[in-house]
Amino acid sequence: MSELIDRSRVLRITSIGASSAGALVSAILLDPNLVESTPICEIGTTFSCTNVLSSPYSSVYGVPLALLGLVWFVVAGFLSINLGRERSYTMAMMVWSILGLLSITYLVYLEVFVINSLCVYCTVAHVMGTVVFASAYLAYVR
Amino acid sequence: MVRKGKRREKGKVAGKYFIALLPLVLVIGVVVFMLTSQQSSQPLQTGTGPGRIAPDFTLNVITSSGLTPERLSLSTLRGKVVLLDFVLSWCPHCNSMEPTLKRLYNDFRPYNVEFVTIAGDDERTDEDQTAAFVARHSIPWKVVFDQRLEVFARYNVQGTPTYYVVDSDGTIVGNLVGSQTYESLAALIRRALNN
Questions:
Q1: 3-state secondary structure (DSSP) of residue B145
Q2: Can you give the pTM of this predicted structure?
């Protein structure tokens, strides 16, 4: 029983941590000046925040994707508070993280096959998103 | 029997962790793939490759007062080395590169080198903001307005600023993406002049 409690606590903390980190990175991505002044952002053309953030895919109907990412991580963070504690929250978190994972898949596809560049900050956010998914899934199938 | 049950349980747990960690492994795999493919390719030459004929275009000239009826075609510049500068008025690096481009323009103008800025139009900029960009930097060369980003697409511009240097035969010598030093652009122009 205590092992079960400990495990769900670990998943909760991991999910909250990843959501917070993802929200922070998304907030940074909202300011292109700040991002583009980071030296690690421009490594040749394969790793180029400029290429990704100035592409037509960086916003949807004028709304920056970074803002959508920030909203996603903030909601994920709130849902994570009760992850593994209440079944309804865990279920909601599972649905929310599948939505996030599908978006990440599409965004990584765009970066690799359409824009031909990876944005380092975006990749950090994508990794955080998959960590949130992993926590939600493990809490759901517990 | 008990051992079989334990094995099955272990397999179930492993399966759960596999599904949970698969997306993470895939994202990391993509990064590693891009990193290794970058090492085996030339990092600064992408899109329309060197040695190819630069795609022709005809666009309206935009000045600090706005869009003009004057049309400029790349083909009319044949016989001269041309630096194509793809920008978006809001892009920070495009703005910060203008003084470097001006220095290059002043240094290479005597060698019959033409500069053309192709300003794109997206949801974050428009005709007025592009005119303001021209005014802000007092750009002395021709600036054309790519309203539908058709020329951007033809040159496979994925980020701004992007520079193409075309030699006097209309052949692309090379292209550079992102903020550049004076020397990297000057080296490309010199190479075009020596062609």
A1: strand
A2: 0.56
Compare CB distances from B177 to A48, A112, A127 and report the shortest one's residue.
Answer: A48
| DSSP 8-state secondary structure symbol assigned to residue B74 | G
Residue-level pLDDT at B47: 44
Amino acid identity of residue A103, one-letter, is S
Residues of A with CB under 8 A from a CB of B: 32-33, 36, 42-48, 50-56, 59, 62, 101, 104-105, 108, 112, 115-118, 123, 126-127, 130-131, 133-135, 137-138, 141
By Cβ distance, the residue of B20, B122, B178 closest to A48 is B178
Residue A94 Cα, gap to closest chain B Cα (Å): 11
ipTM tops the 0.85 cut? no
| Per-residue model confidence as pLDDT tens digits over B22-50 | 888 888 888 777 777 655 544 333 347 77
Q: What is the CATH number of the domain that holds A110?
A: 1.20.1440.130
Residue A126: its H or E element: helix A120-140
| Cβ atoms of residues B167 and B195 within 8 Å | yes
- How many domains are contained in chain A? 1
Q: Chain B interface, mutation test: which of A30, A41, A50, most B Cβ atoms within 10 Å?
A: A50
Which residues make beta-bridge pairs with B143?
A: B117
Q: Which residue range(s) make up the domain with A124?
A: 2-140
Q: Which CATH code of 3.40.30.10, 3.40.630.30, 3.40.50.1950, 1.20.1560.10 fits the domain covering B58-194? A: 3.40.30.10
